[in-house]
Amino acid sequence: MEQQGDSISRLLRAWRARIDAHTLPELRWVQPRPGRRLSQAHVARMTGVSEGWYRALEAGRRQDFSESFLLRVAQALRLSDAETLTLFLAVTGRRPPGLPARPREDLPEGVRSLLQQQVSYPCYLSDTAWNVVAANDLMGEWFPWVLRPAPNLMRWALLHPEAREQMLDWEDNCARQYLAMLRVAANSDPANAELRALVREILDADADCRRIWSEEHDVVEHRDGHVFRLCLPYHGHTEVRVASHVLLPIQRPDLRFVFITPLTD
Prior knowledge:
Structural class: alpha+beta
Strand order of the largest sheet: 2-1-5-4-3
Number of strands: 5
Number of domains: 2
Largest sheet: 5 strands, antiparallel
CATH topology of the largest domain: Beta-Lactamase
Low-confidence stretches: 1-5
Strand content: 5-15%
CATH class of the largest domain: Alpha Beta
Distance between the termini: 51 Å
Oligomer: single chain
Shape: elongated
């Protein structure tokens, strides 16, 4: 613990030392006018706490530091996403909530290339609200809905009539799984307005989903390795069994890289 505290102490001092206080609009009207050096008192003022409270953080002493306070520290010190992550992990052991979302179209070239090079299996990228942001050609051939405007896996699987025909054993093997995943996601990120709206839309629109939601309490974080039975036009409406595999690109942990592989047994 002491080594961890010492480490974050040194980082916080370094992050504070690199900032020119004269450039900060938050200190523009402070009297007397601060010098170039950003002090602990300045950071305390910018984050709305006492100097002693901020000093305890910078000294690496254990306190009940709130997430909102740490986010204000990150803003005051102009921390990058990686620096904010380091601060949160060192102080709370958790990842920070609500880092600014990057544009869905802003895909790392390596991730985009890997997706396009997949010619044996359908695969796609989705965000934390299950919006499909990119898909390979085979995914579009198996599941033409991904080519429609603003495709969303949950809306299609839970609300679209064709999903109930194409995903066999729809209620037990699809709806209950996906609603259990939505339950985890909604509770893991309550500040995600898009996710909350998606849950409301699905429950408002479909009586079966409302019934399953009210009678079930299962939670599922992901469907990696889950087996689905499909009946798709692409396969001449003959049954196929597939498994889904979910990967998280390290460059974009807000995205899921999903492969769909046929089972032969």
